[in-house]
């Protein structure tokens, strides 16, 4: 089996090279990158660029209840840091990625052509899809090739997204920009009267590392080096808003960084949803926590601010006491506007949890004391030829997931299903955003959670893994087969 470790020992330095076992070899930093001088982030002007709103794509065609799209994965130049051009990897040149809006019960078919220098495999994160369209780590689109994915959308409203999942290179491809938004809507959600249209938009938040020419520097497991914060593809941008309610679908598209987001004036927001769509009721809170791959759906009411007010979103995750939080994005209240939207006290009713039939234990770990470490699930490095757990179709299972590391955080993502969080560290989860449907969940060092899911809809092989992309690329991934 080709692993990251023996690839590095062999001195391989080609992005997306394929070993004899068919496994992708992770990219290593080129000599030019290794010698590059990092840009000083304090020299990047903050709130000097306007945050773009991702483009909502129209289908190439519609036939009955099916919408057809086609994308060309390609490298383009874009301005992330003011005055500098950066090479990024994109779907059809969109950075941040394009935005597909879909409706429950209406299929979406996407043809992806790969014009990048490395293989790809496109995963609809949070999507309930057949194995053939899941974008599994070894279902590769080679450079110059293409693949068509079918998304049945047989699930309620959800804040999905799509990204590369080609094993060992997913980390670099996502770091270089290969992500897109996918909003799944349904009629019950539309009937609630939440902010909509121009007042409902996604925001992808992530970190990155740049050299002094503005080019991205990628190194595996490089958490501390990625010190420039992006919102919708711009470094520390601003966004003009009206003095009314806005719905922001927040996506953490960072490879590894966790965010705990607050408004700089300490005001509260209403969290109305997460990964798997709306919560049962809004949660009023002064902080929003999202780990790599997680989403949070929030409503911010700017009507309390006079026109001319500036207020920032800041990150307080891992900020020591007495140190100012890290800026992310500035809102500028520039005008008034009519507002007929509302946030109802009741948003949805989630189905009752069925009695579980199976209990499993899953243990997450990385080598903490080695720069050339590996990642493990149940003490095994990912091997695409191995099935780690066999699940009976229709079964409801409870998984106890543990992070046994002492210093390194993880999170946990399961393909195919949305789950419910039952317990965190032995304490039942009865309130807050973790009561909703989830597909990705935080696990700090030493933490243990219980999640419950029902495995139905499709049979086949799917993966579960840490969604810190660098950890997954290091081997922290396993395969389940629904039979």
TrEMBL record:
InterPro entries: Cu-oxidase-like_N, Cu-oxidase_2nd, Cu-oxidase_C, Cu-oxidase_fam, Cu_oxidase_CS, Cu_oxidase_Cu_BS, Cupredoxin, TAT_signal. Residues 1-34 form the signal peptide. It is an enzyme of class 1 (oxidoreductase). Its EC number is 1.16.3.4. Pfam families: Cu-oxidase (PF00394), Cu-oxidase_2 (PF07731), Cu-oxidase_3 (PF07732). Belongs to the multicopper oxidase family. This is Multicopper oxidase CueO.
